[in-house]
């Protein structure tokens, strides 16, 4: 697991909470944030946590999507670990519910940051 990159992603999400979105797209160009780009954990991994470098791929998610596969590679995750981190449907219920309960960008970003932390501490098992 590439923990340094996961930590970099956490810091970037904290700095740019409006650019975090786990709602179903790897990368969404043209959102309502100043640069027009939002991304999920995998999208941020591909970008190296740099908004200017987000890949311009189709926004639909899927197990064999190029962004998922590349993010899995750069984060050095197994397929199962990647699914547990990138897809909220595989998150433990407490994290999934927390994400949907919060009403602000900063709140959702905070949940994602804590989810990544729990993932790191569990060595990808949670």
Furnish the topology, listing elements before pairings.
Blueprint: H1 3-15, E1 27-29, E2 37-39, H2 41-46, H3 66-74, H4 79-86, H5 93-101, H6 105-121
Antiparallel strand pairs: 1-2
Helix pairs in contact: 1-6, 5-6
Task: Walk me through what this model shows.
- The chain has 126 residues and is mainly alpha-helical.
- The chain has one domain.
- Helices cover 49% and strands 5% of the residues.
- The longest helix is centred in the last third of the chain and has 17 residues, at 105-121.
- Residues 32-36 and 49-60 have low confidence and may be disordered.
Offer a quick outline of the entry.
With 126 residues, this protein is mainly alpha-helical.
- Any idea how many domains? 1
Helix % is: 40-55%
Report mean pLDDT, rounded to a whole number. 79
End-to-end separation in angstroms reads 13 Å
Pairing-aware structural class of the strands and helices? mainly alpha
Shape: globular
Gyration radius from CA atoms, angstroms: 13 Å
* Largest sheet: number of strands, sense, barrel closure: 2 strands, antiparallel
List the secondary-structure elements in sequence, H or E.
HEEHHHHH
Total strands: 2
Low-confidence stretches: 32-36, 49-60
| Range of strand content | under 5%
- What's the helix count? 6
How would you write the strand order of the largest sheet?
Answer: 1-2
């Amino acid at each position: 697991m590439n923990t340094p990159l996961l930590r970099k992603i956490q810091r970037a999400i904290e700095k740019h909470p409006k650019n975090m979105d786990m709602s179903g797209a790897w990368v969404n160009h043209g959102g309502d944030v100043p640069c027009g780009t939002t991304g999920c954990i995998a999208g941020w991994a591909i970008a190296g946590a740099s908004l200017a470098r987000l890949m311009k791929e189709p926004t639909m998610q899927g197990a064999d999507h190029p962004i998922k596969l590349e993010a899995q590679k750069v984060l050095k995750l197994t397929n199962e670990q990647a699914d547990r981190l990138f897809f909220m449907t595989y998150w433990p219920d407490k994290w999934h519910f927390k994400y949907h309960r919060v009403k602000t960008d900063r709140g959702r970003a905070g949940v994602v940051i804590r989810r990544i932390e729990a993932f790191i501490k569990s060595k990808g098992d949670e």
